[in-house]
Specification:
The protein is 0% helix and 54% strand. By secondary structure, the chain is mainly β. Strands 2, 4, 5, 6, 9, 10 and 11 form a seven-stranded mixed beta sheet that branches. Strands 1-3-8-7 form a four-stranded antiparallel beta sheet, with no helix packed on it. Strand 9 and strand 10 form a beta hairpin.
């Protein structure tokens, strides 16, 4: 089970940090990621963190978002800086567990003045 938190309303240029707590051991997941879906749009992969520590980002968030993990807390984070209105979406945490991709329930991020 993956449980996200940290979403909310923020002004343009502001920051938010999303958290995703994993039930069980985070080290059991080969990779973790954050995706988002805005109204009327397809779900988009935003950031991915592979077990080796390699990270990948969507071009639209490169340099603004950072994915990280804390094994002791079984938690994955998404630090979002310099937020823009187009970052408004439901953000989902997901992880590769064996042959499955497990998803959280999502957390709403709204960037608006």
């Amino acid at each position: 089970q993956l449980v996200e938190s940290g979403g909310g309303l923020v002004q343009p240029g502001g920051s938010l940090r999303l958290s995703c707590v994993v039930s069980g051991s985070l080290s059991s997941f080969k990779a973790m990621g954050w995706s988002r879906q805005a109204p009327g749009k397809e779900r988009e992969l935003v950031a991915r963190l592979i077990g080796t520590g390699t990270t990948n980002y969507a071009e639209s968030v490169q340099g603004r978002f950072t994915i990280s993990r804390n094994y002791a807390k079984n938690t994955v984070y998404l630090q979002m800086n310099s937020l823009k209105p187009e970052d408004t979406a439901v953000y989902y945490c997901h992880g590769s567990f064996g042959a499955y991709e497990l998803w959280g329930q999502g957390t709403q991020v709204t960037v608006s003045s």
